[in-house]
Design brief:
Function: Involved in regulation of DNA replication.
CATH architecture of the largest domain: 3-Layer(aba) Sandwich
Order of helices and strands: HEHEHHEHEHHEHHHHHEHHEEHH
Distance between the termini: 42 Å
Domain Cdc6 C-terminal: 303-385
Bound molecules: adenosine-5'-triphosphate
GO molecular function: ATP binding
Number of strands: 8
Number of helices: 16
Number of domains: 3
Largest sheet: 5 strands, parallel
CATH class of the largest domain: Alpha Beta
Binding site for ATP: 60-64, 208, 220
Strand order of the largest sheet: 2-3-4-1-5
Structural class: alpha/beta
Helix content: 40-55%
Low-confidence stretches: none
Keywords: ATP-binding, DNA replication, Nucleotide-binding
Mean pLDDT: 90
Strand content: 5-15%
Amino acid sequence: MRRFERKQNVFANKDALGESYQPDQIEERDEEIEEYMHALQPIIDGWEPNNVFVYGNTGVGKTAVTDFLLDQLQSDVAAYDDIDLSVIFLNCKTLNSSYQVAVELVNELRQPGTEISSTGYPQQTVFNKLYDELEAIGGTVLLVLDEIDSIGDRDELLYELPRARAHGNLEQTKIGVIGISNDFKFRDELDPRVQDTLCERELQFPPYDAPELENILQSRADVAIREESVADGVLGFCAALAARDSGSARQALDLLRLAGEVAESEDAACIELEHAKQARSRLERERVEEGMRELTTHGRLALLAVVSKTAKQETPCRTRAVYDEYASLCESAGTDALAQRSVHNHLSDLRMLGILSASENRSGSRGNYYSYELNVPFTSAIEAMSDVLRLSPEIETIREIGSMNDIT
Ligand SMILES: Nc1ncnc2c1ncn2[C@@H]1O[C@H](COP(=O)(O)OP(=O)(O)OP(=O)(O)O)[C@@H](O)[C@H]1O
């Protein structure tokens, strides 16, 4: 008997909603594309490339637009015999120094079997090896360094590379660096000399709003989802949620893909709003669980205190009130409560993780204070809690109070 059976009732090409898919068309980024093309124009004109720094939050199309334009550029330079363009991509995510980035680049450019070891050389030696490799390529070389902020403050390479010709390290090869980052602080904290050259052209990608996300989803759904297999309002729902949260196209696409999976698992022929809502709860729950894994027991208890206040319809509430709730949960758990100051720190961490939101209230001469509330659905939070905290009776009570008060 067969256990696995192909289900393709809603997806025509599910991969088109995945991370590795490169769209043929970029929606809603006409201005950024124009500015980007302007920055790349010297390459076509035969001059030295500009260095470009692209930044914006996660999922706002920095990589998609870069890939799209560089593909286009590579095919368009073919019309000019005097331009020899090579593009080298490197994701720096796991590389946290100039040294490591330089080693990785050298090895990407070398033949298999002639790679260098990732330790043991003086930094300048590795840089010189990199110049040798770049010089051997000749023509114009564009180095695309994605997630460039991983390099941290050990950014000497970012100073050296754009100046390689000026300093006589490269003679034949013209080099341009495209740095991509979603860390706004990184740019500001760069050494001013690095900033001057690397950020010669800056492109900022703003978050998408809901109508923009809906268009992006629509054009992707045309490829990914069978005709008539997505109900009215589903794309708008996914777009609105992602817009409110992050403005990220990735988040919107993930939500749509998961909604399709939920529909398929129920053997439905069409993705309905209900599937999208289930997908949303599941993603929220995963987010809370992921955040919770990083918390200590007391961080989790502080969160449960806010969940409990939510069930009782007592949020937003001040640290003091959260603390009292937390202290009583500690008692039930047979744990000594931490001081209020430490609980305050846990609440700040939860806010950073996006699980709580806080508003600042002014209270005249006594200074400002924060009021906290859940930033994820109550049901996602309580379910995530029951998986990680051994406080079943208390959690059950909170769940019941929540349901009596119609909190979802
Ligand atoms: N304007 C757009 N049109 C079509 N698809 C888009 C657009 N913007 C983003 N996407 C899609 O959304 C997903 C995330 O985009 P992308 O990887 O370019 O984001 P990013 O800004 O580089 O994010 P990160 O900083 O996390 O790397 C990809 O699947 C991409 O194809």
